[in-house]
Amino acid sequence: MKFELEKSQLDIQKAAARFAKGEFDKELALELERTHSYPTDIWKKACAEGFIGLHFPEQYGGSGYGVFENALVLEAFCRQDSGIGAAMLTAPFGCEIILHHGTEAQKDHYLNMVTSGAGLSAGAFTEPMHGSDITRMSTTAVRDGEDWVLNGVKTFITNAGICAFYILLVQTDIEAGHKGQSMFIVDADLPGIEVASVGEKMGLKMIPTGEVSLKNVRVPGSALLGVENKGFYQVLQFFDESRIGVAAQAVGTAQGAFDRAIDYIKGREQFGIKIAKFQAIQHKLAEMATQLELARLITYKAAWFADHKKPDAKLSAMAKYYAGKVASEVASESMQLFGGYGYITEFEVERFYRDARITEIYEGTREIQKNIIAGQVLGKLR
Amino acid sequence: MREIFVIIEDFGDGAWELAAAARSLGEARTTALVCGAAEENQQALAKLFDRVVVFPASADGNWDAEYIAACVLPRLLSEQPYLVLLLHSNNGLDLAPLLAAKSNRPMLADCLSLEVREPGLAAVRTTFGGKVRARIFAKESSAGYLATLRPGAFTTSAPVEGAGILEGATAPADYQPRRRCLQTLTPDAGAVDITQAAILVAVGRGIEEQENLEIVQSLAEALGGELACTRPVVDKKWLEKSRQVGTSGLTVKPKIYLAVGVSGSFQHLGGVKGKPYMIAINQDPAAPIFATADVGIIGDLFELVPLLEEKIRAHKS
Amino acid sequence: MEIYVCIKRVADTSEVEIEVDRSGLALEEADFSWDINEWDNFAVEAAVQLKEQHGGTVTAITVGGEDDEEVLRRALAMGCDQALHCYDPAFEKADAWAIATILAAALKGRAIDLLLFGAVSADEGRGQVGGLVAGLLDLPLVSLATALTVDGAKAIVQHEVENGLERVREVDLPAVITVQTGINEPRYVSVRGIRKVAAMDIPVHGVAELGLAAENYASQTNRITLEELFLPPQGVGAQILEGSNEEMMNQLIQLLQENGGL
To answer: Is the pLDDT score of C192 beyond 80?
Structure first.
């Protein structure tokens, strides 16, 4: 047992922090938030430096690192800026499914696309009538000769409208429930695809979230991702891994809010005394720092498992649940420490607070995470 | 009696400070070594030092560390002075370590004060960008010592008048330059980068009207600094954002920060790093800026600023 | 072209409140983050750019403890070809002179065209190691370079001199150049660079490999000892000037002069 990063992990952590410090300009972030614009230039630079998809093999533009190193990068990015960091997290969203289940041609084409900065991906799993419950999909794919024809509506799709392709979960056997689901990679410019905004969001304002409707979208047989009728299992396996990324996002976002609060209270005086000297403040800080450390530990442990054994459903769910909760609480308390200034956009912490909340919602709400944890703890109840 | 050699870079404050530092160490015979000095400059040095050794000027007439080293090194080796002093200036940095290595002397760099403490030489210097002071001690050295002085640090004790013997010297006949000056460049005019400025004059809400900025701009020019400002001044679009200091503006680390009509909000002062020497001019005795500043002047900036500018210009001419 | 660049790992103290520890000889390091000295980072970039233009190899060297290997990995990831870690327990607490002699021993006998240093370090701030090595190896020195090109057997160096001026010099190679910040735009360390470095071996040279005889090298070679670290006296609020406007402004001129403002 060794509670210490490897040399190259330290190097990656530092390189990511330095890149974020150099590129994630505060004024730019506020501007992108206001105008709801994607941080395209930063994303392309991050690709050029090898940060996006560093956990993919070298032949696909990655560096052959693991989930752990990816988590370190995401944590450092979100710590510097919760919004831009989240955009970097979601830039190759869903591509691990291509990595694990795709054909050589799919991997070569799509993974190189997202690592080189040529295109963004989008994972399209959620449907208007089915949120975190994906056991039954209304979107369908029907075989037509060599092709498939897709119909249906997907919602809450990150990167909708700006991505190069969608990774879709659809029903290929309508009778078979979750055992009749398959996945497809669908280029975003195909006829029959339409995107509508889901409306103004609380946070993550730089990243578009949309509703994607498919009307007789025709794709070739080669667009099938993985094994027909095994899509549900592929997605579950993916979530076990991707939740670690969300946990890292949560840890970074919490730490970023905490850093800003510490800076503030060290300089702020009330009643002639630095507010950092008040014991009530100090005790609050101690709690926040401890929560942060614990969230980081379980996130790292889940990442370590993913790399050294296999993604562990329970640990990943625990990491995402706990880190998400800590992000919301620590960001909220950080904002409180700022007093009135915490409510002002210029001081950033309110944005970290807004961006923190999503980590308890997307990729399975905290309640879903608890279901998973409980399921693993109890085993099959007879 | 101790022999102290100083290497002259300029004939004004620099020479004076080197003389003051040499005299601060007690009884000593002081020798100034200089490459190229007009008659009146030689006379000025003669007033400060016991002996002035004048070498011919460098080929281009400017400070040339390599040439100076070639001139003075034989003297250091033959006369073995106890201490060699230079300024810790850009030019001094280009020469001092070379001399230290070639004359085998411990080098005390960037000293704020010096003190002979047998069997060695003690100094106080700054580390960590001025945040920390270090008391250092150069061990006994039969080859003597070399120290570079923080410009402006040795101004308190006036040098005693020297005996002023002038001595002409020649450059070594076998001097082979390995570096040659091609050109001297003057800095770009126009481009403003307050983050790099050593002197900043910051203006705040107290300036009242955009038209009034002129007097502060003019003061900044007189001081050789840049004009900076607080957020309200930018909000009113009186100055560009590139001049704003603070948590929502730029972080600056000047050596001198003169705040005019600046209340001293936490947000503004958060952008001022590196503990500059801070002077505040403000009408309000309760302005928080006075808690942070080193020097405070309570009064009307519209009277004080032009007066200060006038005095600075008089001082500089 | 054979380029050597000497670098150092330092604590970043720009954002932390500094405290001297109980020994009085070191700082409390709990909050420090460590990285390559900023000036040295520009020197590494300058070295790598010159190699990219003219070919050859860049070797990064540091004198420091075990953890300081980090800055060599960083330099390699930025594009240096080789690294050398001068590390030996006997080097601990080496002063500028001892560091310069260690570097000189490491460089002696090597074919060198250009030897680059950061002009100064963020911690000690002495600005002397580059010049000392130039003196020890009898190489020409140009300090505080703000531009650097190589033309055959000469370097063209622009550097900072008096009164905000810069001077352009031509210097015969081999030469020592100390680099000022802003000379270039240092590249980021890329993940691919880090990947490449992970497989590289960084040789460690101690007293034996460097042919330095002494057992307690630093303590025997050091010429300067640190006696005490302390924080500069801090004012409690401003010194409020008194008198007429005329008198106050006269005092202010005096204070500006004493504090380097005039």
So the answer is: yes
Question: For residue B21, how many C-alpha atoms fall within 13 Å in the half-sphere facing its CB?
Answer: 34
Domain annotation covers residue B124: yes
Is residue C191 in some structural domain? yes
Residue B221, Cα to own-chain centre: how many angstroms?
18
pLDDT of residue B273: 79
What are the tens digits of pLDDT across the range A11-51? Answer: 999 999 999 999 998 889 999 999 999 999 999 999 999 99
* Closest C-alpha to A90, from A256, A258, A215, A203: A203
A104 is catalytic: no
Contact C166, B185 (CB under 8 A): yes
| Structural domain of C64 | 2-221
Same domain, B90 and B215: no
Q: What Rg do the C-alpha atoms of chain C give, in angstroms?
A: 21
CATH (domain of B79): 3.40.50.620
Q: B66 vs C141: CB contact, 8 Å cut-off?
A: yes
Residue A139: CB atoms within 10 A of its CB come to 22
Indicate the number of domains in chain C.
1
Span C228-240, pLDDT tens digits: 999 876 545 788 8
Is the pLDDT at C254 greater than 60? The verdict is yes
DSSP β-ladder status, A147-158 and A209-219: antiparallel
What is d(CA A158, CA A90) in angstroms, rounded to the nearest whole number? 7
Contact B266 A346 (CB under 8 A): no
Cβ under 8 Å to C: B residues 169-228: 178-187, 199, 223
Residue pointed to by tokens 């050029």: A48
Round to whole Å and give the CA distance between B152 and B155.
6
Query: Residue B162 in 3-state DSSP?
Result: coil
Query: Do B141 and B277 belong together in one domain?
Result: no
Chain A hits for B246, Cβ within 8 Å = none
Q: Do B266 and A268 touch (CB under 8 A)?
A: yes
Q: Hey, what are B32's tokens?
A: 């100034």
Contact A179, A173 (CB under 8 A): yes
Which domains are present in chain A? Answer: 7-116 (1.10.540.10), 121-229 (2.40.110.10), 232-378 (1.20.140.10)
Q: Once rounded to an integer, what is the mean pLDDT over residues A286-304? A: 98
| Domain encompassing residue B61 | 2-168
Select from A8, A48, A58 the Cβ nearest to the Cβ of C194: A8
Residue C259 lies in a domain: no
Q: How far is CA A178 from CA A93, A172, A183, A233, A351, in A?
A: 22, 10, 12, 8, 38
Give the C-alpha separation, A40 to A49, whole Å: 14
Phi, psi angles (nearest 5°) of residue B52: -125, 115
